[in-house]
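Late entry, adenosine-5'-diphosphate complex.
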Amino acid sequence: MNVLVVNCGSSSLKFQLINSETEAVAAKGLCERIGLDGRLVYQPTGGEKEVTEAAMPTHTEAIKMVLDALVNPKTGVLKSLDEVEAIGHRVLHGGAKISDSCIINDEVISVIEECCDLGPLHNPANLMGIRACMELMPGKPNVAVFDTAFHQTMPEKAYMYAIPYKYYDKYKVRKYGFHGTSHRFVSKETIKFLGLDPENSKVIVAHLGNGSSISAVVNGKCVDTSMGLTPLEGLVMGTRSGDLDPAVLEYICNKENISVSEMVRILNKESGLLGLSQGLSSDFRDLSEAMENGNPDAKRAIDCLCYRIIKYIGSYVAAMNGVDAIAFTGGIGENAALVRKTVVDNLSYLGITLDEEANKARGEDKVISTPDSKVTVAVIPTNEELAICQETAELVKNQK
Ligand code: ADP
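Prediction complete; structure with ligand written out below:
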């Protein structure tokens, strides 16, 4: 089944056309600067990258350009749009009402609308992408794959914040967690790749990218995750602070005479690796290069990033009363041997030893712990687009 996978941000739209059976990507690309001047980058597999500058006032024009590119007689990969059998949308927040991917109908749209408060940047953009596809490809099934869904199996003790219960009652303030598609895909793949018993397994997935989160998965079900009500909680990320004493907000707001929303923006956009490195970079590659050249700001940022991961892994081993496997994924998790080594060297108390040679691995499923290690550590590349394609195809097939 040909599935168009769509991931809308507030001013961008990423897409891939994937065949769910062969897993082959026919074409992929990105619309940028939607609402401003507009730019489409389109690449058919095996072909040249094409860049087209054209006005895209809304996501509808952006999707229209993508569809035109896919059926373009010269560089397109489809004869007609009839060959697109379903559209899979990445949707950020499904709140507490949605615990799985679903075929989009009016009810699903109202849940996504209701959750705009919880995901103010993403949910409205996701809705625009959904509405544009419905308008331009009427009658085709659209599926929503939620970033929060996989984490809905967390028990109450893991998702509640210890604040007055009325805020949960009135506003549903609780931990939701994100990157669920990746955590589901990687935990499943880890179980399969390592031959673990799906009904008797404890896995920790560390998804480390620009945004990072870590999850504890027992028998294939999420029992805890580091992101919270929003993606701000948890690990040290590219520009997000992750965990901190909430009183820091009031303290800095008073000292700097700024509003809480300005402070939250700083915690989201100017903190993490970028903040710790005094503005040097939010990108791990830049920082690791700078650290090699002796830059103390880069070293501080990387030290803090690794230390937080080590603490979370320790807490999830405790929460699950053990662990069978730890999987690294995401841009940093899949590529940064230094981060994996720093983290794994600090897990010797679990009887884990790193296979230094195997740790040079990049971009493939690979065990990086030694054969006598008590817990298996592996690199398991994530593929969120493929996961969205597969979940979409499965739902659409079952519906037929
Ligand atoms: P996003 O959260 O935007 O999807 P990614 O998963 O692509 O992010 O991860 C981006 C991060 O991965 C950046 O910090 C980048 O520096 C890092 N990264 C990507 N490739 C490498 C590499 N080869 N070595 C080290 N770090 C890398």
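The pocket of adenosine-5'-diphosphate is lined by residues 209-211, 238, 283-285, 330-332, 335-336 (CB under 6 Å). Will revisit in the morning.
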